[in-house]
Amino acid sequence: MSATGIGAPVRRKEDFRFITGKGQYTDDINRPGQTYAAFVRSPHAHAVIKSVDASAALASPGVVSVLTGQDLEADKIGGLICGWMIHNKDGSPMSAGAHPALAVGKVRYVGDHVAVVIAETFAQARDAAEKVMVDYDQLPAVVDMNEALTGKTVIHDVAPNNRVYDWHLGDKAATDAAFARAKHVTRLDIVNNRLAPNPMEPRAAIGDYDSGQEQFTLYTTSQNPHVARLVLSAFIGIAPEHKLRVIAPDVGGGFGSKIFIYAEETVCVWAAKKVGRPVKWVSDRTEAFLADAHGRDHLTHAELATDERGKILGLRVKTKANLGAYLSTFSSSVPTYLYAPLLSGQYDIPAIYAEVEGVYTTTAPVDAYRGAGRPEATFVVERLVEVAARELGQDPVAFRKKNFIRKFPHQTPVIMAYDVGDYTASLDKAMEMADVKGFARRKRESARKGKLRGLGYSAYIEACGIAPSAAVGSLGAGVGLWESAEVRVNPVGTVEVLTGSHSHGQGHETTFAQLVSDRLGVPIDQVAIVHGDTDKVQFGMGTYGSRSGAVGMSAISKALDKVIAKGKKVAAYAMEASEADIEFKDGRFSVSGTDKSLAFGEVALQAYIAHKFSGQELEPGLKEGAFYDPTNFTFPSGVHICELEIDPETGVTTIARWTAVDDFGTVINPMIVEGQVHGGIAQGVGQALFEGVHYDADGQLVTASYMDYCMPRADDLPSFDVGTTSTPCPSNPLGIKGCGEAGAIASPPAVINAITDALGHEHIAMPATPQAVWLAAQRRLPAIAAE
Amino acid sequence: MTMISMTVNGKAVSGNVEPRTLLVQFLRENLRLTGTHVGCDTSQCGACVVHVDGAAVKSCTMLAVSCEGSHVTTIEGLANGTELHPMQAAFREHHGLQCGFCTPGMIMTAVDIVNRKGSTLDEHTIREELEGNICRCTGYHNIVKAVEAGAQAMGAGGMQAAAE
Predict the structure, then answer these.
(1) Domain named 2Fe-2S ferredoxin-type: which ranges (chain B) (predicted)?
(2) Which of B34, B101, B108, B138 best probes binding to A when mutated, by most A CB atoms within 10 angstroms?
(3) Residue A285 and residue A433: Cα distance in Å, rounded?
(4) What CATH number did the domain enclosing A725 receive?
(5) Up-side HSE of residue A127: CA atoms within 13 Å toward CB?
(6) Structural domain count, chain A
(7) Tens digit of pLDDT for each residue in A17-43?
(8) Nearest CA of chain A to the CA of B89: how many Å?
(9) B92 contacts on A by Cβ (under 8 Å)
(10) Is residue B162 part of a domain?
(11) CATH code of A44's domain
(12) pLDDT tens digits for range A650-706
């Protein structure tokens, strides 16, 4: 392993600009003559718009324009789309209501976009937005999914019972038969709490229009600028793709919430032509809480059937998924194909049947958030397994091991074909690192201090490397999920790699450069990674679903193969040898059996001067591209163990130690991978202990700031013990599985399993706030006193 | 409009601002020092932390006019030319950042912690002191390590005073 190659903890190339304040985020960019946008948002959860009177706003200082949904319609600008078609049990398509970027006729959640005010300054735009008079006829809010499904109040006419779809997966008859012969059935009702993604950089957009070139440019906080351009062009109709450039510069975190094509970005780029000047919008944090797509929000009834020895026979799940007031870009797929196919977990479960209802409510749209469906599935499986073991009087570790999948490949009853893994290895290693043997002693020590100590396991699996295009196409996706790469070798041997992946914290500028350095033998500081601009990179599908390593780097790897292959041809001419005799190793092309060799940079120069092969079939230059379409999902897996202590006097839960052992296959940069795990754990612990989006019965968002929505802070968390095992992924050239979401998927059930272990009973909902834990602990105290 | 003057990163600056202009807006919009970020509206996240007359301040919560005559240091003023401040170097060495958005505020807060608490900091103290800075990427693990190492380096280099 070289100091900068695959497996080395290379310090990040991108850090210098961030630690010196020289990052270029969207809000750091200004365009000449720029105006500022402020959105008029609905104060009501559900209302008919009777009229919009902009006269006072238009007379307000500095106001350039006020635009509404009628103006969008007049310009034939289409609505926002949902790119994944889900079919009902009877085969009919889901019921998707229209989603205009600025509301037409009705508003459907607090924060819904009614109009945009464009002014000379941001303050003038905000001042004037308050003067736009909207006459509303209020309709009842519907926040609760069960209430929504009664259909008493209809949010979209196309969905009479507010049911977007009624979908299922698996073999119902086989599963019912498994339950019929079960010795024991474990039943759980689970609320997977609604979360706000909260990347620290709020969304922002600048629309710009060059009337001379008839060219639009959108600077935006996107995880996938090419997908944004495709949707804005082909579906929303801003401009043809060759007349629309989307730039996603430095982006300050995404966690899924910056995948989607939102109203504000759409309006800014459209309005730039309308007002003839650039239009800039920057979200404040409250707007982010109101209008960024939320995550999770499931109500689930789950059942696990076991035989007399504790072998799992079947799993049955009924889930209601809150999709909010409109279908966001990929929202329909999250509680269906990103959820139910993961319900087998790490276990050999012969029969699984899942039913999912997608439900409209008068709340913000819900879409992918770190893990997207897989945390919800893992929570169901790992709570069920834990509770089943406890009900059967079996050790949770022994119960898991008894049911682990041990032979690979393994076809689950819910689509997925697991390729490789060693679940016992991760569990054993995690138990050793967590000193599980010493837990009983630590529990006694806690008890002496009047504290309740608990230990919780989570053995998770996820499907990453999203995804084989044919597979997702057959399941309803409107796009293919391959990735592209182009490797441009300059005449002096420096290398630029253009990738369709997008880095918003993941460190691609370093890890991707490590791959190039490793393969070409070029120093890492002579490699530049180019991303985030549709005028530079031809196409790409972006970064989400832990796909940039497994899919994005596989595309780079393929392009590098082609560069080396062409380099051999050039080297053969340059050294007057047969191409078959050229070897490439450690950055040098050599003629086998001789001492003749050329450095990579010398061959690059030969490729560009072309003196040695002019007039031959070989073309000058050294630039190769590749598209990589995966042949399977990847299946990262692992075990997280949470040990915590509860103070029954205050209900405060303190995480005493956290152990994570993950199998990510090949690891390119262990420092960056560990960082991804740390961040994921923090978000999962946030879900389990602190976070929760809450609407009141009138549909008002009561958690719309950091004063009300509890983000995990430094003093809420411990340091984490992170280890790995490795079974390299067989389906991609690098053996990478992906690491971005694992922590957020694994951690919530580990926390709740530990809390319920400490409390001695099973009912605690997320977030397990001090109040909830205190109430639960009070019920437990008499029993503890008796012990 | 009000005329204001202050010293930012060692340079005398002035500007004509609306009285409601926040310090962070003055820094970002008037001076184009965009390393200082805005991550919330409620003085919770700390992405906007700068030093005013040697103390850490959330610049989204201070009016520019109230900094008249003050000495302000932002993330852009921390390095000595191309030589990184030890706290900046520690954040890079210990992977204390991912997306980088909270990082300027984290680093400015970390330097302030060392200025107030000295260069030998335990994990508990660092975590308590970082309570006013939110990071969504790192889970704080590596930020805590970076602050501890950066503090030690500041102590070894006698850098506390030089930071201002």
Answers:
(1) 2-78
(2) B101
(3) 39
(4) 3.30.365.10
(5) 14
(6) 4
(7) 999 999 999 999 999 999 999 999 999
(8) 8
(9) 11-12, 15-16, 19
(10) no
(11) 3.90.1170.50
(12) 999 999 999 999 999 999 999 999 999 999 999 999 999 999 999 999 999 999 999
Q: Is the ipTM of this complex over 0.95?
A: yes
Q: Chain B window 10-49: which residues touch A at a Cβ cutoff of 8 Å?
A: 18, 20, 28, 33-42, 44-45, 47
Residues B62 and B112 in one domain: no
Residue A599 CA: distances (Å) to CA of A410, A512, A589, A603: 46, 22, 6, 6
Which positions 95-134 of B are in contact with A (Cβ < 8 Å)?
Answer: 95, 97-104, 107, 123, 126-128, 130-131, 133-134
DSSP-derived 3-state class of residue A633: coil
Domain's final residue, options B54, B76, B98: B76
Q: Are residues A366 and A461 in the same domain?
A: no
Which of residues B53, B76, B99 is at a domain's end?
B76
According to the model, what pLDDT value does residue B158 have? 62
Instruction: Answer whether B20 sits within 8 Å of A711, measured CB to CB.
Output: no
CB contact under 8 A, B98 and A713: no
Q: Are residues A388 and A267 in the same domain?
A: no
Query: Taking CB atoms and an 8 Å limit, are B42 and A18 in contact across chains?
Result: no
Q: How many domains does chain B have?
A: 2
Regarding whether A182 and A146 lie in a shared domain, the answer is yes
State what percent of residues in chain A have pLDDT above 70: 99
Query: Do the chains contact at A715 and B42, CB–CB below 8 Å?
Result: no
What mean pLDDT comes out for the span B47-68? Answer: 98
Chain A residue with Cα closest to B38? A201
Nearest to B91 among A19, A27, A123 (CB): A19
Question: Which of helix, strand or coil describes residue A375?
Answer: helix
Could B143 and A18 be called an inter-chain contact, meaning their C-beta atoms sit closer than 8 Å? no
Beta pairing class for A279-282 and A35-41: parallel
Whether A538 and A680 map to the same domain: the answer is no
The domain of B111 spans 86-157
Domain assignment present for A162: yes
A54 and A187 housed in the same domain? no
pLDDT tens per residue, range A319-341: 999 999 999 999 999 999 999 99
Domain that holds residue A230: 31-139+201-252+258-291
How far apart (Å, rounded) are the C-alpha atoms in residues A653 and A712?
A: 13
Cross-chain CB nearest to B130 (options A14, A672, A714): A714
Give the domain CATH number at B138: 1.10.150.120
- The shortest CB-CB distance from A201 to any of B84, B99, B104 is to B99
CA neighbours within 13 Å on the CB side: how many for B144?
23
At residue A592, the 3 state secondary structure works out as: coil
Is residue A667 domain-resident? Answer: yes
- Among A295, A207, A306, residue whose Cα is nearest residue A255: A295
- Give buried/exposed letters for A334-365 (b at 16+ CB in 10 A, else e): bbbbbbbbbbbbbbbbbbbbbbbbbbbbbbbb
